[in-house]
């Protein structure tokens, strides 16, 4: 971009920061819709300047300038008319110019969807956004009353149940503060610090580089809340390190994809779905943060067990201590980041500041960074900080704003409650068919990168059905949906996180995704476990939480051992023992006492037989680092 355009982008970014602070801290009274459109004016045009119009557009051309100027003009115009929108009736649109504005915004947001998510994303969003137009011709439960395209587009753009509803509210009022904090952390070097800290803590362990990947991705992912950003940022360092240590390329790529996927589920910052869930279920965000602690720790513990088993089986050593950063020096250099992370958790969980917390944390980070001689110079890079903010916000708008059209299409026709009631009738007294439908939809949409869209659709249809059929815990249902939607990032045949990691690891994408599904196997079952036992998400008695957490830790150890073919203190497992041990682990983890008891007895018998009749192998020699 030319210098003048870059300066304009940075000015809009700074204006957006000021606007958000003014609105969220109510320094100046602003109508919600006025604020939303002004925020779009600041960041949405940048999406067209950062995301190319086609694959060959290597520099910004008029194909990107034109829509950027158009969306800036339309959102600014709507900010001017926002009072009329709040107190008047724009659905259906009564004036030709209102229809023109609606069509313009609708088309430009869809173009942003195409640039950010591809043509499949564009097709699905368009089809569901315009669903009321052809719903009259749909059969059975999918039928809806007839509607004109003008009314449908106006509803999608102007309604509080569509573009100006839950998605925009969550981005503009909650996510934005966390994105500010994430941008500030990235610009001041938090990613490098967490990677060095993971190296200092785990580098010398057996299979150290892979364990570093798990720890670093968990650290950084808990702040970024982005699967794909996590793969690129930490994977560009950890994947080559794993390969040098002796891990195959497909294993290194698969592990990084799994570790990065877990970052979206790891408190305190869990990505857009968690914030939308809090708004959708009218639940305090701190409750969701606390609920996700045990499942996310079980998942990362499973990855750790897989890595340790693989390293033991292959005889892989860690990195010599002299080649690693020292813990105390690393902490001395980056202690402000840990203090800010602790403050963020304290503000969310204890003080319950909710959307104000990341702004306080950002201010604290600026102060602490100014006090640290090694980090002080990074604060002078104001342009880099502003660019990181506009990059994160513009791409977030481009991905999430189109999903609000999906809500509009389903809400305008009223088919969502009809589908929910039909699922209830289909399930009857059996919950498994309904769960199977939900899991299928989650994985299909998640494979296309439409994690938020999958959650929104199923929160409207599947969640009410599960509540009616089995009376399951509401938060457990919504977390279940969110976990399975995220899980699609490592599920073949279209595992986007694994495919992205395979580019860095220079491995076969399909092979990488197959290994990612194996390494992340815990994530396929933990959501089912806490769906039937809410104590695992701190929604039950404390003693049940302790009991089932301990049993699930044992289950994870056995599942990972069966997957890798080696068990601590037992050694290599025979082929005959691996599948039964895997099944025993699942039975132990499933929250039902009879199945758990059967699993414990079966696991004990398999381990005893393995110790007596298992493969007799000599100790694996420890190769020198680099062999």
What does this molecule look like?
This protein is an all-alpha fold and 627 residues long. Helices cover 74% and strands 1% of the residues. Among the domains are: 3-124, no CATH class; 168-390, no CATH class; 541-615. It has helices spanning 3-24, 32-50, 62-80, 82-87, 96-129, 131-134, 149-158, 166-187, 190-202, 208-224, 227-244, 249-263, 272-281, 285-291, 293-314, 327-350, 357-371, 382-413, 415-427, 432-447, 451-470, 474-487, 496-505, 509-519, 522-532, 542-564, 575-589, 593-613, and strands spanning 566-567, 571-572. It is globular.
Q: Which terms would index this structure?
A:
627 residues; mainly alpha; 1% strand; 2 strands; two-stranded antiparallel sheet; globular; disordered C terminus; 28 helices
Largest sheet: 2 strands, antiparallel
* Rg, alpha carbons: 25 Å
Task: Kindly report how far apart the N and C termini lie.
Answer: 46 Å
Largest beta sheet: strand ordering: 1-2
The fraction of residues in strands falls at under 5%
Helical/strand content category: mainly alpha
Which series of helices and strands comes N to C?
A: HHHHHHHHHHHHHHHHHHHHHHHHHHEEHH
Mean pLDDT: 88
Helix content: over 70%
Q: Care to count the β-strands? A: 2
**Uncertain spans:** 618-627
Shape descriptor: globular
Number of helices in the DSSP assignment:
28
